[in-house]
Amino acid sequence: MSDLATSRIYLDHAATTPVRPEVSAVINDVMNQHFGNASSIYMEGQNAKRLLEEYRDQTASVLNANGSEIYFTSCGTESDNWAIKGVALRNFGKKMHIITSSIEHHAVLHSFRSLEKLGYSVTYLPVDTDGLVHPDDLKKAIREDTCLVSIMMANNEIGTIQPIKELSAIAKSRGVLFHTDAVQAVGAIPVDVRDLGVDLLSLSGHKFYAPKGVGALFIRKGVQLNNLFDGGTQEYNRRAGTENLPYIAGLAKALTLADHEMKESSVRIEGIRDKLIDAVLASIPHVRLNGHRTQRLPGNANFSFEFIEGESLLLLLDHYGFSCSSGSACTSGSLDPSHVLLAIGLPHEIAHGSLRITIGRDNTEKDVLSIVPVLLKIAERLRAMSPLYEDYLNARETEYELCEKCYKDEEDK
Amino acid sequence: MLYSDKVMDHFMNPRNVGEIKDASATGTVGNAKCGDIMKVYLKIEDDRIIDAKFKTFGCGSAIATSSMATEMIIGKSIDEALELTNKAVAEALDGLPPIKMHCSLLAEQAVKAALKEYYENLGGIPDDKKKYFEVLQEDEHSV
Fold this sequence. Notes:
Chain A is of the alpha/beta class. Chain A is built from 17 helices and twelve strands. Chain A has helices at 21-33, 43-63, 76-90, 106-117, 135-141, 164-173, 193-196, 234-237, 245-283, 310-319, 329-332, 339-343, 348-351, 365-369, 371-384, 387-393, 404-412, and strands at 9-10, 70-73, 97-101, 121-125, 146-150, 177-181, 200-204, 215-219, 287-289, 300-305, 322-323, 354-358. In chain A, α1 packs antiparallel against α9 (245-283) and α9 (245-283) crosses α15 (371-384). The mean pLDDT of chain A is 94. Chain B has five helices and three strands. Chain B has helices spanning 5-12, 60-73, 78-82, 86-92, 101-122; strands spanning 25-31, 36-45, 48-57. Chain B is globular. The A-B interface holds A 1, 307-312, 315-316, 319, 328-330, 333, 335, 337, 347-349, 352, 384-390, 398, 400-406 and B 8, 11-12, 14, 17-19, 28-39, 54-60, 62-63, 99-100, 139-142.
């Protein structure tokens, strides 16, 4: 295989996005002209404070929130940790049951695990084969001592969009707070906190063309939660630490741009995605689409390639100039493939062969579709050296011994 | 870069991929569930490995270690091939990331599994060679 790529095609926008030039321009301006600490009483400080509140209002208006309900954080992970631990710890010793789904981002899942260690009881709701949480399951899971439900708005791996409005209404009717990790949704699909009926919502700047290192948490007026950071009086006494004004400016700018362009952009990106899905499924055998066919993020396509391992696929795609990601164990840094793919019922060997392609605003249809013949070539190449494919062609079933470690994992489940 | 140039070279241009139709012995190790399977084919004449081929389902380092391991044993006597270790395979590839070391054990195990089958076809593993096959009991993921 020669013809090494000379140009790169970035198709991993769910991992991160490039900073838009309009956004970096605003960041530079603020950084160069407004270095003041928003907590200081002199002019430089008060100018910074005024701008901070402007950016807060801008952010709030896109989400249909009030400015006083938006709290800036350092990232989506911080927002998730704060929302979940803040509400749970507020109810320590009183209501110690919390509910989430089995396909959350690790920022949510690991927050729940850590609360479990503190004595909280956790219900992990299952999802169906499309990755959807069923409202009936939530209804059944809520108990007298439930204080929080946290269910993501859109999944980072398979792109499935949850019926948040319906789920939050169930929590509300039982007097339970509802948090949604909307990190993948904000900037990609309309997010209106009033319409969704959520109490808390996390977002992250670098998923919508702002830089890494800035996020926000929406906290509906009246919702009580503990602080995560102790310190100064910033963010109305709720999130200590000097505000990162330049990046907050960038977040507000990027969010406003995304909001203005959303309708046009999502229709275009969704059109490309559908063509990509159709082309891959039509031209490459033994491939399946993961996630809901229509109720999914506009830019997300997630496939499983049978008889192939995901990391090999990514390395070869990289060689040909495409940047994508996978849920295989070898790319997750653990022994198990992605918990999301296992939760939607994929067998391990199919989950190891997954490929996530996430399309962004800079991708053209031609660029995205140019991956299809390359994928076909790579699939043929890897299958030619796969003993699983050989077994399949010979209609043979070879007994592969489970290793000790995987046996243990099996028993644990 | 995650991998050394040598690993990438063996991944991009793997040596000895394929099957040997009249193999003297084959060895298959790993499991699809864990994400890696290696199958090694050996052609042995006069106690010497005259050809080796492999098929691997797995990540970049699994493919590269399969390629390197087969290259290292072709032309070797069985006694020499028995001395193959996962460490030697990894070193020949200028090292592997720590989390990928288990892939090199899989390569050693695949070769050993084939040699075990070869001995068993001849009537059994000689007592003085048994120690070389202890590696087949090891859990690749503990490496």
